[in-house]
Specification:
Oligomer: single chain
Helix content: 25-40%
CATH class: Alpha Beta
Structural class: alpha/beta
Number of helices: 7
Catalytic activity: guanosine(527) in 16S rRNA + S-adenosyl-L-methionine = N(7)-methylguanosine(527) in 16S rRNA + S-adenosyl-L-homocysteine
Keywords: Cytoplasm, Methyltransferase, rRNA processing, S-adenosyl-L-methionine, Transferase
Shape: globular
Mean pLDDT: 93
Distance between the termini: 51 Å
InterPro entries: rRNA_ssu_MeTfrase_G, SAM-dependent_MTases_sf
Radius of gyration: 16 Å
CATH superfamily: Vaccinia Virus protein VP39
Low-confidence stretches: none
Strand order of the largest sheet: 3-2-1-4-5-7-6
Pfam families: GidB
Number of domains: 1
GO molecular function, one term: methyltransferase activity
């Protein structure tokens, strides 16, 4: 089975319907990761099928739980989950926040080559970044534990309606117990990733007043 067919099957399993052009851009993004990975070590994954499943499908599996049109991807790395989300939801405005210079350069190149007009790259540490309008959803994927995540990125969520979304593997019992006030766990969703047997969860956190 070729990569395009695997992508189409995975999207169908996720219940995500996309035009052929968007699917082609998702495949172009995977090709960019593989090309740059040879020099910049963006991911430990080398096989395209594994990048598709463990990175792209993993990113898109959280779509049903993300609300609002302003998203910030904290510690974006290779653009995950921010770039896949921006590709499939062009009406969203997505900021990719990445302090590592080499990774930020890759993100800029990906933004240009994929013609992502709804994406902005910010090469800055999360604790130093400020946004006048704030974000509906502040996402992290393999960024840090929950306590550090909310301490460093909690200020980015819009007051009154913003949420923090932490992508995790197995159910993070210990991290949930250590979440500092005034942050509150709103939901922990099990996430099913096509082609992946490992457990995934999405922790939705509500900033306290």
């Amino acid at each position: 089975m070729n990569l395009a067919t695997q992508l189409a099957d995975g999207l169908a399993a996720l219940g995500v319907s996309l035009p052929d052009e968007t699917q082609a851009r998702l495949l172009q993004y995977l090709a960019l990761i593989r090309k740059w990975n040879r020099v910049h070590n963006l991911t430990a994954m080398r096989e395209p099928e594994m990048i598709l499943i463990r990175h792209l499908f993993d990113s898109l599996a959280i779509l049903p739980h993300i609300a609002g049109s302003r998203i910030v991807d904290v510690g974006s790395g290779a653009g995950l989950p921010g770039i896949p989300l921006a590709l499939v939801r062009p009406e969203w405005q997505v900021v990719l926040l990445e302090s590592n210079h080499k990774k930020a350069v890759f993100l800029q190149q990906a933004r240009i080559e994929l013609k992502l007009n709804n994406v902005e790259i910010v090469a800055e540490r999360v604790e130093n970044f400020r946004s006048a309008s704030g974000f509906d959803t502040v996402i992290s994927r393999a960024f840090s534990d929950l306590a550090d995540f909310v301490k460093l990125a909690g200020h980015l969520a819009i007051e009154g309606g913003g949420r923090l979304a932490a992508m995790k593997g197995v159910y993070p019992h210990e991290e949930l117990a250590q979440l500092p006030p005034p942050f509150v766990i709103e939901n922990v969703f099990p996430v099913v990733v096509p082609g992946l047997e490992a457990k995934r969860h999405l922790v939705m956190i509500k900033p306290g007043v």
